Amino acid sequence: MRSTSLHVGIACALLSIGACRSEPGTRASADSTAAASAVRASRESAPAESAAVAFVRSFYASYAPRAIASGLAATDSIIVERPALFAPPLLAALGRDAAERSRATGEIAGLDFEPFLAAQDPCDRYEVGGAARAAAAAPGASVRVSVYAVCGGARGDQPAVVAEMGPGAQGSWAFVNFHYGPPVDDDLLALLRRLHPGPENR
């Protein structure tokens, strides 16, 4: 009887060894898989952020001098010349604003500052900083890129504007929104919707 019990006990022990030993291994394997996924995600996001910074840098290198010279006229021109640079909701909102301002006589009927430089009196130049993953504040947004104003040779401590980027046409990028920090704490899409509260913005 004792021998039978012993054999049964040994059999049970042998059957359970795999489970007992595999449990820590399974946890370790799950931990390593999660860690590997996090590293992979970090590596995949880094090229995306670098590509977004390069895109924004290229845009500001050509656009900022025009905007410094002509203000909102540059904004109105760029959305016609290069519409693919902007996500459809932002492009439509900027188009409505341009149309309203062109029809107005003797009054301000829309934006009264250059929205991509966040200035009425632009600085000497604009410098693109780093990127961070976006919290998807706007549909399709994935990366935010900081842009700094450089006035009198000194770069501002805080970004003048933060460009929110998302996937664009043909695998490129597109501007989804522009965010303005303190003391404004606003964004371009929200501002345009308040300025032009038509049915499409409700």
Written description of the protein model:
Helices cover 51% and strands 18% of the residues. It has helices at 2-70, 72-81, 88-103, 188-195, and strands at residues 125-133, 143-151, 154-155, 161-167, 173-180, 186-187. The termini are far apart. The protein has a single domain (48-201), classed as Nuclear Transport Factor 2, Chain: A (Roll). With 202 residues, it is of the alpha+beta class. Strands 1, 2, 3, 4, 5 and 6 form a six-stranded antiparallel β-sheet that branches. It is built from four helices and six strands.
How widely separated are the two ends? Answer: 82 Å
- What's the total helix number? 4
Strand content: 15-25%
List how many beta strands DSSP finds: 6
In short:
The protein has 202 residues and is an alpha+beta fold. The chain has helices at residues 2-70, 72-81, 88-103, 188-195; strands at 125-133, 143-151, 154-155, 161-167, 173-180, 186-187. It has a single domain, classed as Roll (Nuclear Transport Factor 2, Chain: A), CATH 3.10.450.
What structural keywords apply?
202 residues; alpha+beta; Nuclear Transport Factor 2, Chain: A; 6-stranded antiparallel beta sheet; 4 helices; 18% strand; disordered N terminus
What order do the helices and strands come in, and which of them pair?
Elements: H1 2-70, H2 72-81, H3 88-103, E1 125-133, E2 143-151, E3 154-155, E4 161-167, E5 173-180, E6 186-187, H4 188-195
Antiparallel strand pairs: 1-2, 2-3, 2-4, 4-5, 5-6
Helix pairs in contact: 1-2, 3-4
